[in-house]
Amino acid sequence: MSESTSKIRLLPEDLINKIAAGEVVERPASVVKELLENAIDAGATEITVIVKDGGRSLMQVVDNGSGMSRADAQSAFQRHATSKIFTQDDLEAIHTLGFRGEALASIASVSQVVLKTMERDATEATIIEFEGGTLTDLRIGASTPGTSLAVKNLFFNTPGRRKFIKSATTEYRQILATVNRFAVGYPAIQLTFIHNDEVIFDMPIAASLEERVVTLYGSRMRDALLPIHDKGPACEVSGVVGKQSTVRQQRGEQFLFLNSRYIADRSLNHAIVSAYGEVLAHGGFPFYAVFLQVDPTRVDVNVHPSKMEVKFADDRLIYAILRNTVRQTINSAAVIPIESNLIRAVPIMPWTAAPEIPNEAGPTPPSSLPAPFMPEFRAKHPGRQLGFELSRAQSKPPEIGPMELLEPKPEHTVERANVWQIHNRYILSQIPSGLVIIDQ
Ligand code: ADP
Ligand code: MG
């Protein structure tokens, strides 16, 4: 065999980072997700997310976490530089949201980055600027403890990728969905989200998951959530599942967390939804925020670029535990006494799945709009405009009065004094405090 010159070469570092960015930074929302994860891993209790033009021109996350020393601030942008794992044992038992040490190097290689960071006991902050992965400035400045990381002009140096960024509206929706996941997943963190200089939401630390969900989604969630809890050898399940009134025709209000990490797991989401059984006979998607705690050595979170999909050692067992827990909760809530507020009673009527009922604080947005609509936030802060797409949401809700909805269709109704039977299944009866619905 003749010896020939080698065709294979090692790629230069900046190109390696850009290739890695192809996996880590799929779109602007992926940057927001990585920055939020870093803030949470740094122990932040207050986080502000500032976005402009759907993330196309700016994404900035400001936190009050641990901050970084000057040396760490510089190393943070090197590929495979992390403070979160050091050994293989660490990799097999991940306790943090990040662990690969890739995000900052990848993000910095395809954008302009300004990092300002200060440790809690330090007297001055470090400010570092990168452009397309190259360090352009390193200086000392004044700041408060914590970290601010601003990412500007994503993909400015990779025009091929910039083309794939969608409209500001579409990217904004993705970012909002991402921030919502953190808002639901971390009720104990104060979270503010600003888009194009408008405060989209400003959520104080919540005393409970229920409180956070009501702040985020409005009063339609009040009294609409059922707490779940179970603890077995394979996992601990907690959180809340929505009653029938939370069922919507579109997805988007389903949250599943594994060890505090939002995950997309078709099988486990199926476990939850299928547990609703007949409650979802007419289709739709209920609200839920379910938290699984699993021994980190029994789960592999290193199987997907965005760490959104994971592998469980005990997947069948966890499926069964999750389904049973939700099922028991849904079943035990099958008889739901309702206060004499007719509007509240409406959503659990089996024949009213489609129309939305306006709640006390404002009109319900068309279901195509991104959650949250935050009627209560709007009521408390009338002067503060929501984002441009949200303010367009103030279109009128369907013109259906509550009485109209309450009128059962005659063919479904057998009337006996003050008791009605519907669909051969539900019994409605008047009680002194209002109405009772019994699922036979
Ligand atoms: P990873 O999160 O996987 O470790 P990153 O590239 O996201 O990798 O971050 C690299 C390192 O920079 C982190 O391990 C952490 O030490 C530091 N870091 C990043 N963001 C922050 C932050 N907001 N506060 C404190 N330290 C941070
Ligand atoms: Mg990270």
Fraction in beta strands: 15-25%
Shape call: globular
Helix content: 25-40%
First-last Cα distance: 82 Å
Give unreliable regions as ranges. 335-373, 381-417
Largest sheet: 8 strands, mixed
- Global Rg: 25 Å
Structural class: alpha+beta
The count of strands amounts to 20
Number of H- or I-type helical stretches: 14
Strand order of the largest sheet: 5-4-3-6-2-1-7-8
Mean pLDDT: 82
Give the names of the bound compounds. adenosine-5'-diphosphate, magnesium ion
What does this structure look like?
By secondary structure, the protein is an alpha+beta fold. The chain contains 14 helices and 20 strands. It has helices at 13-24, 28-41, 70-75, 88-91, 103-109, 159-162, 168-185, 209-217, 266-275, 315-332, 342-345, 375-380, 388-391, 402-406, and strands at residues 46-52, 58-63, 112-118, 125-131, 134-141, 146-152, 190-195, 198-203, 225-231, 236-242, 254-258, 261-262, 288-293, 299-300, 311-312, 336-339, 413-416, 419-422, 426-431, 434-439. An eight-stranded mixed β-sheet has the order 5-4-3-6-2-1-7-8. Strands 9-10-13-11-12 form a five-stranded mixed β-sheet, sandwiched between helices. Strand 7 and strand 8 (198-203) form a beta hairpin. Helix 1 (13-24) crosses helix 5 and helix 9 (266-275) runs parallel beside helix 10. The protein is globular, with a radius of gyration of 25 Å. Adenosine-5'-diphosphate is lined by residues 34, 38-39, 42, 63, 65-68, 76, 81-84, 98-104, 147.
